Amino acid sequence: MDDKELYSFPGAYLRDFCTAVFVHFGIGAADAKLAADVLVKSDLRAIESHGVARLHTYFDMLAAGRINPQPNLKIIREKASVATVDGDNGLGLIVGPKANEIAMDKAEQHGSGWVSVRNTNHFGFAGYYPLMALERDLIGWAMTNSTKLVAPLWGAQRMLGTNPIAIAFPGLNEAPIVIDMATSAVAYGKIEIALRKNEKIPKGWIVDKGGRHTTNPQDMIDGGAQLPLGSEREMGGHKGYGLASMVDILCGVLSGANWGPFAPPFALRQEIPERSVGKGIGHFFGAIDIDGFIDKAEFKKQIDDWINVFRSTKPAPGTNGPLIPGDPEREAEAIRSKDGIPLIKPVVDELLDISRNTGIPFEVI
Amino acid sequence: MDDKELYSFPGAYLRDFCTAVFVHFGIGAADAKLAADVLVKSDLRAIESHGVARLHTYFDMLAAGRINPQPNLKIIREKASVATVDGDNGLGLIVGPKANEIAMDKAEQHGSGWVSVRNTNHFGFAGYYPLMALERDLIGWAMTNSTKLVAPLWGAQRMLGTNPIAIAFPGLNEAPIVIDMATSAVAYGKIEIALRKNEKIPKGWIVDKGGRHTTNPQDMIDGGAQLPLGSEREMGGHKGYGLASMVDILCGVLSGANWGPFAPPFALRQEIPERSVGKGIGHFFGAIDIDGFIDKAEFKKQIDDWINVFRSTKPAPGTNGPLIPGDPEREAEAIRSKDGIPLIKPVVDELLDISRNTGIPFEVI
User: Fold this and answer.
1) Which has the least CB within 10 A, B75, B253, B260, B280?
2) Is A152–B260 a contact, with Cβ atoms under 8 angstroms apart?
C-alpha cells in the first residue's frame, strides 16, 4: 500500500463495517446503523474530516468506557416549541439524530421546534441534521460546541471550539440550499494537511502560543490556536468570535453542558479541561415548518428562483462564478455513491487496526 | 461651524426632534416616539451609521410618499410559535419593534417565537431588537435583509445586503452579551470614511465593478461591491456568503418580501431593482424563553461565569485581550447618556435642513 494512493470503498461496505464496530461495543443494532450512517454520509459528501477517519477515535472512546453505548435520552425540561435533552453521555452520532427528531416533531405541531442537548459527545458533521429536516420538508438548523481550538479575537489562548452552524432550505425542482460552516477561519484539517506536506499556511488561520500571527502550521501543534472567521479586527475577526460565542452559549450554557474552554475533548490524547461547568458537550437543533410562515409550494418556487438568480451572478475573473451553498457536497455525493469513497492509506490503516482489535473483517479490495 | 468639529447634543433633545419630524408626516405620537428611540439608541451606543445620520433619508422617503406613515400591521399566517407579519409598507423603525413584540409574546406562551416580516423598510440597528427582549428577560434574535451591496464569493456583482445578525443573552450581575454584526467583511460606513479621508482600504473589503480585488474605496462608488465576511475562499469568504444567504432567505423568501438583488433601496438616490419578487424588504425576529430550557437564574449565573472566564483570556501581544460582545456599545452608552451625543457637521447640516423644511426648531448649542 502506497501512502499517497487512494483506496476506494463502496459506501454500503463502510456503513456495514462501522455498524458492526458499534454493535461490538454493545450499541443496539438500530442505533449502530444510525451512527454509521452519519459517518458515511459525511464521506459521501466529501467532508472527509468527519467521516470514517474519525471511527478510530470513537473506537478509542468506547473501548475506554468514556462513552455510554446504551444511552437513555431524557427530556429534562420542555415547553411547547422548546426542550432540553440529556444525552446520557451517549455517542453524539446517536443522541444528535434523536434530539433532532424531537425538534422536528415540535415544528410539525407548533410551527417550530428548538432542542438544546447536554451530556452528549461529538455528533459528526453538522450538515447531517438539516438534511434530516429536508426529508420531512422542514427547514433544519444545527449547531454544536466542541473542544477548544479557537482563540477569541485578541486572545492568545484556545477558548472556543470550531463551533459549526448548519441550515438547509428545500427547493422545488432545484436541489436544496445547504449551508454548513465552522465559525473558525478554516477547518482544522487544512492545517494538518499543510503540516503533512511541510507547507506554509496563510496568515490569519492561526496564532502561535504567544498569540502572534504565524504561517507555520507546527505552531498550532505547539500550543497555538486557530483564529475565528474574519481572522483580524480589520477583516471582521470579532464577528467570527461573536458567532462562535453564540453557538457556544446556545449549545453549552442553555442546555447545562460544558461551555468555552471546558468542553471535554473528543479524543483520548487531548487534555481534560481544568474545570467542569456542566455535562458533556452541547448541541442545539432547530426545525421550522415553512407552512407556518408562507405557502410551502410558493416558498420552494422562490428558492428555485433564488438559486437560478444567484447561479447567474456575473463571475469574478478567474472563477466560474458563485456556487450555491451545498453544491460541491451534493456533486461529490452523486459521484461517490456510484464510484465509491476514496480513503487515504492512514485512514485505511486505522480501519484495519480496528478490524484486528475487534475481529470484524475489513478488506482492502 | 468647522467640518471636523463635533457638536454635542443630549439624547433626549435628538429624540424629541426626531419624534416631531415623524409626527410632521402624520405618524401617530406613540409610533413616532418609538421610531425616534430606535434611531437615538443607535447613536447612544456609538453605532452612528444607523442613528440620526439616517434621519434625512427617512425624511426623503416620507416626503416622497414612499413610506406609509400609518401602517396597519397584519399577521397574515400563523402557528403557535411562528408568524408572518405584513408591515403595510410602514417605517421599519415602527414595524420592527411591533413584530418583535409578537415574537416575544409567543416566546412567553410557547417557549419560543419566530416572526418573519414582509412589506417593511429599513429597521435601524439590528441590536435594538434583542435589547428589547432583554427587558423581558428573554434571549432575543434579529436579522434583516437590505439593499444589495455585497457580492457572493466569486461574484462580480452586488447581490446581497450587509444582512446583519443580532442576538443577546442576559447575565445576572454582569451586563448582557450583545452580538450585533453585519455579515459583510466590513461596515459600508468604513469605506465612506476612507473615501472622505482619501485613504486606501485593506484588500478584502471590496471588489471593483469587474470583480477584481482593490484597495481604492472609489471603486465601490464606481459600481464595485463589498465582500462577505471572510473575503476570500482561503479565509472563509464562502462562510460570510452563506450567512448572508441564510439571513436573506429567512427574512426575504420566508416572509414573501423581496430577496437578494431585488430588495428595494432605502434611499431615494439608489436605483430601483429591475424585478420585484415580493413586498418591501424582510426582517426575521426570534425570542427564546430561557425557562423552557433551563432554570433562568442558573443560566444567568453561568453567563456571568462565561463572561468572567472570557474576560480573563490571555491577551494577544499589543492588545488588552478579548472584549465581551456588547462591551464597547454599552460603555459608549454610559458616556453619551451623560455627556451627550457628538455629531459631525455634515449630519448637523442635514438636521438643520430638515428643520428648515418642516419648521421644527433645531438649535446647535
Assistant:
1) B75
2) no
